[in-house]
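Re: weekly structure request thread

Next one in the queue (731 aa):
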Amino acid sequence: MDSQARVQVQAQIRNLFQNKPAHGHGISRSFRDFHPASGIELQKMMLKLVQASQAAAVAVRSLVLQPSEAEKQSLEAAIEVAEAAIKDRVNPHLVKMAMGIFLTHSKEAQYLGVVAPSLKEHLEFAMPAIIPIEKTVIPEVTPTIPSTFPELNPTTADTLKAIETLSYWREDYDLNDHHYHWHLVYPWSGISTIKEEKIHRTIDRQGELFLYMHSQMLARYNAERLSWSDIGLVDPWSYDEVVEPSYTPPPGLRDEYGARPPLQGWLEEHSPFMPEKLATVSKDTMIFWRNNINKGIIQGYFYTKKENGDQGKFNLTEDNAMNWVGIIVEAEAHQLQEVSPGSNEFIDSDLYGTLHNLGHDKFGEIGYQTYMSNKNRWGVMGFTSVAVRDPVFWIWHRHIDDFRQSIVKKYKQHALKESAPPHVKLTGVQILPQDENSTTPDGGIATYLTAPQLGLHEVNAKLNHEPYKWVVKVEATVDENEIKNLKPFTVRIFIAPKQLMHEQRRYIEMDKFLCTLTTKSATFVRLDVESSVARKVPDPSEYQDPRCLCGWPQNMMIPNGTELGIDYVVFAILTNDIISEDDTVSMSFCGAKDNKYPDPRGMGYPFDKAWFRTSSEMREAIKGLDHVKLSEFKIYRKTQLYQGRIVTVEGDISWENTIQYFFTQNDASYMMKEYKIDLTKKKDVIRYRMFIFGLVEDGTVPVDGNTNEKKSKWSDDKITKFEAWIDADFP
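Done, posted below.
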């Protein structure tokens, strides 16, 4: 891999994502991540990028080039197409979404180590908006008054405080970046290819993964809510209800996304201010689709339609039901709903529609009034990069999760005993602080609420936890001389709030990993950062496999605790199957490089099928099973701030007094020549701060003389001051 080629291409991509088009950034309402018409435009744009990239690759293939030059030129050709599209007034959000998906799946990008930019490198993060206070009000709309109101408690400051308590969690930057990148890796619109101009999905069980990943998000959100005594669990969306609390994005996002007013529900039809092509559907249509999907699950088949109009049936089985229900509910693009390759027989979209996706847009249009103007923008629910910020995302996905639970309850879990690895016994599982001097009470793990990163549009606080480890003890039940014949096995670990342990949907996957027993007994220690669920590094802006970026944020791996400790259970099981040993990716949420999900069992096994309804039933079911263990622990919330490194913001750190002197003349000349970034201008340093910081970390900056040779890196003190300047919003 040529690091210089990578840096140059990555800089061009950052410029594309950060530069404001001359004709204005937006209009975001003309492209929305979940709308079917937008999906078609996205497919077309992705195809243009792929065609340009491949044409450039063919053109340079016969030439004698430096290593990585062919890949570099291939990617630059795609970048030129994207830049030209924006100049031609193609919606910039469409172009950037297409580029993000293209980069995530491009072999040339993977070879060079180029990745789709993290959210903090997008325009709305690179240049935080300063919004006058008078612009922060909820838009005035004419409410649609239902004939009767559902029975609700009065909306008061206290009741609104309850839902706002969780804003720190929903507005967490890393959570939003996770959700955004997951949808880049697994776009419902598919991946464009040149061959026959067809699209394909990323992984064989993408529908199942869609349901499972979002179900796990919901389980974690509900666990978080339990840590605050005044908040209950999320109720599912009822199509005729109104949403009590309003939602207004943080100030820096209000130039792009609109507010949602309180006490509003879905429009009966759709916004009259949106062109027909980009409109949503009526509430009755959504109900029609919902009822048909539920009916299909109950009766065990979905209707299909061939290109000639003939109708057929597609039967659900225990093996395919979860995946196909996910495909239909999300819904994946029409081409991806072919029941078997080459059959020209597709799930009947007239009957089942695009429920999940247009549900997002039905919420996004609440409060929206105008088109092609700067007033009352489309809500965050229309965009993968910000949707989880709105409380209604979780209400909607609680409903979507009910479809998954219908499949869970439809099929019984028969493999609990049969899954045991032969001659291996699980004797203990425990979660412990990594720090032997931790002040957390025995049998517990501590969480902390730290200061939010305001520059990344976080609010109120940021969740984190003390570093922890899993300690798993295993014994062989055969003689010493037979241990060498034992096969590898998989350890699967889940947690759940003890008060909800009787509900299968509440179990949160924490890790799964492969083990081999080479002695009579062994203790396996697994660190939190090694989890198959989590992102592999705290800062995903560093190069890595793009599938790492869709893992669950490290700082949110442990749900928030309480001051006295909230009771949790640990469920651990050994299974006689072999999963991927690729430790570089977040396997549980992100899959594998090929088209096969790297775990042969159902996602979330053994909670993917029904096997208990009460905690006593669960305990009875695992009684006598040597490969299953249930234990308990507490999660505490510490009152003091916890930070891996305390950053003290000194009063005299500013651009004028400090930061401008960090860069030498050689640095400025190099950056202007290579990247057209002027280090003498504060606005350039602010705009490209994360890119500059990356060059500092890899030693490209500072440079020495005219040779561009690396010299000594910035001191820790200088790095700390640069970070403090960013955190203080660039004084």
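The longest helix spans residues 36-60. The chain has a mean pLDDT of 85.
Next request, please.
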